[in-house]
Design a protein that fits this description.
There is one protein chain. The protein is mostly beta strands. It has one domain: Ubiquitin-like (UB roll) (Roll). The protein is 10% helix and 35% strand. Strands 2-1-5-3-4 form a five-stranded mixed beta sheet, with no helix packed on it. A hairpin with a 2-residue loop joins strand 1 and strand 2. The protein is elongated and about 50 Å long.
């Protein structure tokens, strides 16, 4: 049986433990994040959503998920 490594990351200030080598896309999908209605920041830089599947999460990454809110 292969030992699955886990890493710690922070999402909106909260600690999460995820599988090593997870992609940002898979992580956001697992959280059920509505990708069309949010901006994603990884380590203080806005992420181009076209690249989500290529970005592998690393130990101590910091993710901020910003929801767009309409109103008047």
């Amino acid at each position: 049986m292969k030992n699955i490594k886990k890493i710690k990351i922070k999402t909106n200030g909260k600690l999460s433990i995820i599988q090593e080598n997870a992609t940002l896309y898979n992580y956001l999908k697992k959280l059920k994040v509505p990708l069309k209605k949010v901006a994603i920041e990884l380590n203080y830089e806005i992420v181009n959503k076209k690249h989500l599947k290529k970005i592998k999460l690393k130990k101590n990454d910091k993710i901020e998920i910003v929801h767009f809110i309409g109103g008047g």
